[in-house]
Amino acid sequence: MKRDNPLLPYLATLDEVVDLTPDVKLFRIELNDPEVRESFDYQPGQFVFVSAFGTGESPFGLTSVGYRKGPLEVAVRRVGTVTGSLHDLEPGAIVGVRGPFGNHFPLDEFKGKDLFIIGGGIGFAPLRPVITSILDHREDYGELTILNGARTPSDLVFAPEFDSWAAAPRTKLELTVDAGDESWTGRVALIPRVVAELGFSPENAIAVICGPPIMIHFTLIELKKLGFADSQIVTTLEGKMKCGLGKCARCNVGEKYICRDGPVFTMEQISQLIEQF
Amino acid sequence: MSDYISRADLLSWLEKVSQSRDLVAPVKIEDLTLFQKVERVEDIVFDPGNTDLSPKEFFFPKSEVLFYVDRSDGRVELVPAEVEQETVIFGIRPCDAKGIAVLDLPYLEEPADALYRQHREKTTLVGLSCVSACPECFCTSMGTTPDDASNVDIMLTEVEEGFIVQVVTEKGKALLPEGLLSSKEVSPPAAPSVASVPSEGIAEKMHQVFDSPYWDRLADRCLHCNVCSYVCPTCYCFDVRDLRSGGRVERVRSWESCQSPGFTKIAGGYDPRAAKGPRLRQRFAHKLLYFVEKFGVTHCVGCGRCVRSCPVNIDIREVIQDVQGLGVKSEA
Amino acid sequence: MNATEQIVAKARELLESGTVECVIGYERATDGVNARPLFVYQAEEAGKLIFDQTCAHNLAKYLLNRKGKATAIVAKPCDVRAVNLLINEHQVERDKVLIIGVVCPGMVETKWGRVSEKLRQACELCREHTPVVYDFLVGEPGDEEAAVEYPDVARMEALAIEERRAFWEKQFSRCIRCYACRQACPGCYCSECFAERLDPLWVGIRIAPSESWIWNTMRAFHLAGRCIGCNQCERVCPMNIPLSLLNRKLEKETLELFGYRAGVDAETPAPFATFRKDEKLEVGE
Questions:
Q1: Which of A85, B73, B211, C201 is most buried, judging by how many CB atoms fall within 10 Å of its CB?
Q2: Cβ proximity of A122 and A155 under 8 Å
Q3: What is the C-alpha to C-alpha distance for residues A62 and A58, in angstroms, rounded to an integer?
Q4: Band (B246; pLDDT cuts 50, 70, 90)
Q5: Above 90 in pLDDT, residue C285?
Q6: Phi and psi dihedrals of B251, rounded to 5?
Q7: Nearest residue in chain B measured CA to CA from C184
């Protein structure tokens, strides 16, 4: 959205806060200005800066879908000062929103293909709108397998949606944890291992992965073993950001700025980056 | 025949200017020469050489409030900061003026940075060309010259007892009252010769030697302070935080450097560029490769300040030379 | 053999024998007259090493980047005190460092491209020309002189409080928070400096006189009883702030209160890191 002051946030109200895990909350945020609300459009993969006034702002992947025109949803893990301040807010609090920034998942290129969506921990947040878009337009896409992993069962995010995902047509939901608890009867295995076991076929398929760098690193190895080409693997990169505009010169990986050229990249694009993290 | 102004007339004109605008010019502060707001025009120094800090801080301040957060009656209002005062920067050298033009590239690219644009609009640049060059200067290898008038509004060139005046832009013209300039039979001196560095093709070469162990070796002695970035006329990284001042919340942006520890560290502790070699390489890759790929010019104007100021003599001229030579002969 | 020749020979020997992986010393800077740090990994490169009165850098700081790796370091008496400090604080292992100590004639005042004959003020005041510990010594140890004195600090102490405050306000107003002082200081090695902490917020990111005041004074206090007086902070400051003066004031107080100077050995517990039950302050003391 065009503005004459791109560092000035829109005012927004925290409508609802939902505890997803012990340290992750889902925030539903409604932009205050009706004109802004009307024109604020975004695609899966894009992100916003959310301000906790008095502390600062941080980037968060949008986990809702723009076409539903509802409140903006972001999943926030308590890990620093801004996320800490956000976690202390009650519904009704005023926050700031800047965005949307970044590129988006190439959903058009996913059409007609089988999709393997793999997410670890809070990394699952940017994948949720991809799943929502696919399920809302089910006929456009092939088989869908969702692999959601976390450290422990209570760290699995978006649990309220698991049933509807599992029940959707031509859709499989696989859950896994690194360590179970007394009530967990599901799979206990690291994500890369599960990928190897599921043996997903790369034929007319795309794998979309998000999660901690180490999880992505080892999952990639399994996907390559299964025969996935770099161009068939899509992921998001994360970096410290302060502006979202490519002006604070901080979030670059080599010649690309994560905030403008990303955060969505194919493995092919990443392997061509001059700087490798 | 050239437009001319005597030194005395120049000072009295600047005095008048300072009455309705902020006049910023080089002054001496404890052994340093710095651009400061001038109270008395007699304080302005006309020494050869350049200031210790660049004048970028008048467009990109060391710290700047972006907006204020006003809370009253349960309502929240964001009050953006505005640049209100008109400023004239006197005595800016062609390299520093080019530096401002280089800062325009990221900052005015859509969506333009609001405060930077306001600073630019409200500032008139009165340049002073260089009649001598420092041994560390290498502006001619970085896209400008000691007498380059293309990035200022008015350019002065020192001649006997006064200055040749070149009116470059409408903005500059508007600053000069009728009858201030006279005509004089005098030509500008030849521009001084400036040392050169082999900057031709540097971006391509940087690309080729990106993975060389050269960067780790260079970074061995780097202290990872912020001096190079802060004295540089073109460095523009910043940090943003909300701070409280006098009971009000302000969102503040301040200078930062890619060399700071923690520059790329995210909450939770992961830092993709924690190692010294890649961190130092980022500085040179940004200046000599990424910026060139994006905007077509080097992110360096050859002013020589980092060369003079680095406490451990990391010298960009030497780096350019070394990079050009890497891969040609075997390196240690 | 002069100092340079001795250092080159020793460096070559240490690298050829594999006793160390790296020798940290000095070489000529690109202005042709000053020095800069040099890391030598191959014996063939040892010929680049020099030693003269422009070698003012404290190389001990670099030992923190080479923890656990056998390293030789060319060290003046002040640099050796820094090594002792780092050993005392368990940051560096003594048996991983080979100290090539140098009997120091004092370093001269230099600017970029210009070297004077005049000694730096810190070196004028210095009374320790032979390093207190070393594995090899370059130069002949002389007679050590009288005790350390602080005439520069005494001059400041003679001023009224308001004058001192005004002096420091003026000096700190020039601070641009480049943190060169911190990065060059061997005593500053916290993995997260208090200035970077946002919670609690001690300084914040604003670059302005009041914040710079907090930065500089708090850093001085964090070095109280630890500063070994190498003068790097002042040397590297691009804004010519006389930082050593502040540190020396606290050094003087520590000496008067505890009879303690940092770095004279690697064993004596530092006053502010030590609690003794027999030291009890009454109210008002």
A1: A85
A2: no
A3: 12
A4: confident
A5: no
A6: -95, 120
A7: B223
Q: In the structure encoding, which two tokens stand for residue A74, read together?
A: 């972001």
pLDDT digits (tens, 9 = 90+) for B283-311: 999 999 999 999 999 999 999 999 999 99
Statement to judge: residues A93 and A145 lie in one domain? no
Q: Within this chain, do residues B168 and B212 fall inside the same structural domain, yes or no?
A: no
Whether residue C277 is predicted with pLDDT greater than 90 in this model: the reply is no
Among A58, A79, A81, A82, the residue to mutate for chain C (most C Cβ within 10 A)? A81
Q: Percent of chain B, pLDDT > 90?
A: 91
pTM comes to 0.95
Segment C256-263 long-range contacts (CB within 8 Å, at least 24 positions apart):
C258/C225, C260/C225, C261/C148, C262/C81, C262/C84, C262/C85, C262/C225, C262/C226, C262/C227, C262/C228, C263/C80, C263/C81, C263/C82, C263/C83, C263/C84, C263/C85, C263/C88, C263/C132, C263/C228
- A127, A217, A250, B78, B186 from A147: Cα distances, Å: 11, 16, 32, 42, 79
Cα separations in angstroms, B80 against A168, B133, B237, B246: 48, 42, 21, 17
Q: pLDDT confidence of C283, banded at 50, 70, 90?
A: low
CA distance C282 to A203: 81
Show which of C72, C107, C138 is a domain's final residue: C138
Which residue on chain A is closest to C199 by alpha carbon? A81
Residues A144, A78 share a domain: no
Q: What are phi and psi of B315, to 5 degrees?
A: -115, 115
**Structural domain boundaries enclosing C240:** 151-271
CB interface of B with A, residues 51-110, below 8 Å? 66-67, 69, 76, 78, 80, 106-107, 109
Query: Is the per-residue pLDDT at A3 higher than 90?
Result: no
What is C237-258 written as a DSSP string? -TT---HHHHHHHHHHHHHHHH
**Predicted local confidence at residue C184, as pLDDT:** 98
In a domain, C280, yes or no: no
User: Could you tell me if residue A60 is inside a domain?
Assistant: yes
Q: Distance between the two ends of chain B, CA-based, in angstroms?
A: 58
pLDDT value, residue B245:
85
pLDDT for the residue numbered C200? 87
Can you tell me the distance from the alpha carbon of A241 to that of A220, in angstroms, rounded to the nearest whole number?
Answer: 25
Cis peptide before B272 (omega within 30 of 0): no
pLDDT tens digits for C105-127?
999 999 999 999 999 999 999 98
Residues C134 and C13 placed together within one structural domain of the fold: yes
Q: What pLDDT is recorded for position A1? A: 43
Residues A220-256, buried b or exposed e (16+ Cβ, 10 A)? bebbeebebeeebbbbbbbbbbbbbbbbbbbbbbbbb
In whole angstroms, what is the distance from residue B84 CA to residue A182 CA?
Answer: 65
Structure ipTM:
0.94
When pLDDT is cut at 50, 70 and 90, the band that residue B75 belongs to is confident
